[in-house]
Amino acid sequence: EYARNSRGMSLFACRWLPGKKRNKDARPPKALVFLCHGYAVECGVTMRGTGERLARAGYAVYGLDYEGHGRSDGLQGYVPDFEALVQDCDDHFASVVRSHGTTVRHRFLLGESMGGAVALLLHRARPDFWTGAVLVAPMCKIADDMRPHPVVVSILRAMNSTYPPGRTQEKRDEIRGNPYCYKDKPRLKTAFELLKVSLDVEANILHQVSLPFLIVHGGADKVTDPSVSELLYRPTLKLYPGMWHALTSGESPNNIWTVFQDIIAWLDHRSSHTTTSMEELPEVEQKARHDDQHQQQHGNK
């Protein structure tokens, strides 16, 4: 489905909803989760695994492809105005919340890489609107010892690999074969917008965050620096030694499972649910775990 922004552009919107439990009436989702994807990727394919896993855990998940990303209108891979991008997300996410009325009380943001900055800016726009946020390897600060020219070089380098292919051949093939991912060199205006928003987040947001956060970061991430995540106010930081940037899709099935266990446990706690252990997870999620392990074993033969 598509949503129309204030500039008359069609933006691709997707959703994953929890299914009915066996022999039980449909219940409202535990909470709403809104996905903020990274630079050059999109929600419908790249973040499908995230949406499906969270829906199996009982959450209603919604995503929006930014202008110039995925199946949305705009020059592919081009971010002409980061503030407009954030406003598009704010407008669409708020409309989804309104459509649920009072049936769902909790709402979360989940931002990956550049989407982490989007989530922080959404929080600034509506400080009391969100229940919490999950930041996956967020792009949220430039190192203090970097001078202007190296900063630009660093951002350009990060943009060239903002969505690294991942550790598995299957993930590398998926990204290269995904027509909705932008794979050409980054545009200069886009680099400037990312630099500008990074400076804004560092100077005006990092030390004023009052929202509960879970931050998950790979210890071997070469795209965004794990140490800067510690600067956020009162975060819960989960650092995974040896893991790379694409924690929720580019790692081995076992590593991905570990990350999602932590994410779902945190969301459950913040949503006043306590389903956190393996034994208590929904049957379909346990089946997915078994399928992941079987796929890994089969792939290693």
Automatic annotation (TrEMBL):
One GO cellular component assignment for this chain's record is: membrane
The source's superkingdom equals Eukaryota
Extract the ranges annotated as region (Disordered).
276-301
Basic and acidic residues: bias regions: 284-295
Where do the Serine aminopeptidase S33 domain residues begin and end?
A: 28-248
Any one Gene Ontology molecular-function term assigned to this protein's record: lipase activity
Gene3D superfamilies in UniProt: alpha/beta hydrolase
Q: Which PANTHER family match?
A: PHOSPHOLIPASE-RELATED
Report what the protein is called: Serine aminopeptidase S33 domain-containing protein
